[in-house]
Every structure is written in C-alpha cells, then in structure tokens.
Amino acid sequence: MNPAEGAEQLQRASAIEASRPKKAAKAYLQSIESDPQNEQAWQGLERVLERLGDPARAVSMQARLTSVGITPDRLDGVVRRLQEQLDLSDPAQFAAALRERPSDPAVRSRIGSYLGSGQVDSPEARTLEDALVGLPLPTHIRIETASVCNLRCQHCTTGVAYKSTDRRVMSQETFERVLGQVRTLPTIRTAIMYLGGEPLLNKHHATMCRRVKDETQVTTVKFVTNAMLLTQKWCDDIAAANVDGIHVSIDGRSPEENDRIRLGSSYATIRDNLRMLERTLREAGCRTKIVIANTVFRRPDDLMAPSAPEFIERDFPGIKVRPGYAMVWPGMTAGETTLEDLQVYQEKPRRFCDHPFYDLAIRANGDVVLCCYDISGRHVMGNVMRDELLQLYQSEQYIAVRRAMLHHDVAAVPEVCQRCVVFTGDRFLQHPMRK
Predict the structure, then answer these.
(1) Of 22, 103, 114, nearest to 61 (Cα)?
(2) 277: closest CA among 238, 241, 249, 318?
(3) Is 4 exposed, middle or buried (0-12, 13-18, 19+ CB in 10 A)?
(4) Kind and range of the H or E element at 214?
(5) Given pLDDT bands bounded at 50, 70 and 90, which one contains residue 435?
(6) Alpha-carbon dihedral of residues 158, 162, 164, 168, nearest 10 degrees?
C-alpha cells in the first residue's frame, strides 16, 4: 500500500469510527502499515481498540504489525489495560465497573445482562439504582420490515387481533431513518428484522437485512418467517444477504395441527420451501443457521417443557428445533381465537422484565414500542420519524418503566407489561388439541 492509499484508509477510518469500530480498526491498521510514522493513525487505532475492549484483537494486531516489520510497542499500554480490565460478566466486578466508569459504553451496554442474571434484588442493585435505570444502552434492536401478514395464526395476536393495529410494509424512507439512527447507537450488535408480521411481504426485506449488517456496527442479523412465500428468487436474495440466522415457524404436534393452528398455511408447502432454502444457502456457501420454532398448545397432562415433534425431526434432520408452549401475547385474549375449550395456564408470578434495559423495537410505521413482545404497538414510546432513538431511550418515560421494574411495582408498569408473560410469569394457552 502506498502513502496515498494509507491516507485514504485514515480518512475512511475516521469517518466510520463511531458506527463501525471493527472496520475502523482495520483501516487504521492499514494506514499504519503504509506509514508507520502517522501519529493520527496510531492514536485512532489505540482509541478504537480501547472502545472495543477486546485484548485478543489488540494482540492480533500487534502480531500483524510485527509480521510486516513494524515495531508494535506503541500498543503495549492498550493491551495491558485491556487485559487488566474487570470481567463484566461477573456481577461484583460489573457493579464495581459501573461505579468507576458509569459513562463507559462497554459498561452501560451490560446493564441488561447484569439484571437478567438475577441481580435485580441484590443489595448492589439497590445502591446502583439511578445508574441502572438512567444509563442503559441498547444491544439488541427489532426492525419490523412488515407488520402485515399472510396468515392468521390462532396463538398470535397478529392472527387473532389483526385489525387492532396499524398494518403496513416499512417504507424506504422509514428504513433509511432507522438505519441512520442505528449508527448513532454503537452498542447495538444484534438486529432481528422481524416483529409481528411476515417480512417476506416486503420486497426489499433481503436488501434491508444486508444493509443493516454492511452499513452499521451490527454483527448479527436474523429474521423470522412462516416460509409460505419463499420462492427460488427469495432464496437467492436471502443467500446474497448472508444473514446469520433464520427462524422458521412450524407449529403443532402434527402437520394437520400446524394447518389448523396457522390459518392459511400448508405444512407441505412449508416443508418444500424450507428444503429449497436450505439447499440454496448450502450451495451458496452461507453460514446462515436455520432454526425451526415449534409452538404447541399446552395440554393438562403435559410436562413443563415440550419436546420437538417427531414429524419435524423426521422431515428436517440436522436442523435445530426449538419447541415451546403457546403463550398469551399482550394485545390478545384467549376468547379471540377460533378454538373452543381454550384455557389459560398460569405459572407463578415474576413481576420483572429486563427487556427495557437492553432492547429496542421499531414497528413498520416507525413507532418505537417498549419491547419486542409488544407486537401490536399498544405502548408507543415515540416514532423514529420525529424522535431520536438515544434520546427516547434515556427519556423520563423509559426511566420510569425501568424503575418500576426494579421495584416489582405492578401498578406502575405499562398495561402491556401487566399482560405479558415475561413480566407476569408463564401464561400458556392450554387446549386438548386432537390429532
């Protein structure tokens, strides 16, 4: 690389440092390889490595510089600091880090994990309350490319209460606004391109998945589909997007039960389409992981955890199956389904949810809802077309919800939380479904 190319890499690194630190680190490294005396490049690389907080990455970059004849001693201090930093997965060390470095994005992004690991009632959490409710930064985002759906599933609020909320395909204007705002939240690493509809009803869905991963700091992109609309062209487009994961919904304990629960679906079509998708991804060399999500209605004599149905394991050997019981979603009631004799099975109350401490969810119309379980948009926090995500996430209304969660204050949390299984504890739809 000549000096001109090195200068170009330096300029590129500076431009993307805030949104794509990993790529910026690589660009700074390339600039140093071109001109080892470039002080701006060295400073930029040190700064980005500190932010990434990964000592192994810093050591590997030292090794690369050594391999091309450049002395990497300049990075010794960064490596030492990163190797000595606290283990944020350890509750006690996380609490110490939050006290010492409350404004550190790496620390703030771990608040949700800390509370989700059972620390919500610890004495430490009480002393750190203001920081825990006021400083979180999101690590996950849901982007609903389509809230419309081609099915009317009887265990989903989209299916049983379809007309209760706004239904549309996300516009390009809204998507561009979302994409720009995701870049301002460098702690977001995972994007699930789905919320409550069928994403393949948006003809730009695969392109949107690819752009989120290519144009932001997001490292993992996934989506959920019912697979009824898959064609060879869709399979080719999805392979080109090279997403990290696809969850395909196949429900019930038999093909016939799937078709009764998922009104408008055909197990035979899903089976053939999914095999086509699997083959296309394999031939394209994609590392996309397919998971089959299987939901069944609980029966009175069922065990606490369901097992994968035999027909799915038979038809899709090698694909992971994730079974679960149908739950009562916020925005629906058991009486709205077409199934008779449907009951609600209630487990012990929980009265806490960690989603408001790490999760963002954006509907197809741009509405920001409290979390990914509010697929009907019952509690809107703002809209990306008029609000900034970071400001919303740090707003008084978000802080009030988080504080209520910490105190298990049922009356103070939004109604949508009071009707959600994550907050209330498991509430399953129970039905003696016949084969």
Answers:
(1) 22
(2) 238
(3) exposed
(4) helix 205-215
(5) very low
(6) 90
| Among 171, 183, 170, 174, CA closest to 212 | 183
Residue type, 168: R
Query: 């300049």: which residue's tokens?
Result: 74
Place of tokens 């939901």: 295
What's the whole-model pTM score? 0.79
119-151: pLDDT as tens digits: 999 999 999 999 999 999 999 999 999 999 999
Structure tokens at 433: 């479904």
Contacts of 415 (CB under 8 A, 6+ apart): 378, 379
Taking CA atoms, 218 is separated from 53, 182, 242, 389, in Å, by 16, 9, 13, 16
Encode 295-304: b = buried (16+ Cβ within 10 Å), e = exposed. Answer: bbbbeeeeee
pLDDT of amino acid 340: 60
What distance in Å separates the CA atoms of residue 372 and residue 404, rounded to the nearest whole number?
A: 19
Q: Which amino acid is at 14?
A: S
93 dihedral zone (left: phi>0; alpha: psi -120 to 50; beta): alpha
φ, ψ (nearest 5 deg) of residue 292 = -95, 120
Sheet of strand 359-362, all strands in order from the earlier edge strand to the far edge: 320-325, 289-296, 245-249, 220-225, 190-192, 140-143, 359-362, 367-369, 380-383
Q: For 372-426, what is each residue's pLDDT tens digit? A: 889 989 999 999 999 999 999 999 999 999 999 999 999 999 998 888 878 877 6
Reported as a single tens digit per residue, the pLDDT across 60-118 is: 899 899 999 999 998 988 888 877 777 888 899 899 889 988 888 888 999 999 998 88
Q: Tokens 């996309």 appear where?
A: 288
| Residue 387 exposed, middle or buried by CB count within 10 Å (0-12, 13-18, 19+) | middle
Map residue 245 onto helix, strand or coil: strand
Axis-axis angle for helices 232-241, 205-215 (nearest 10): 10
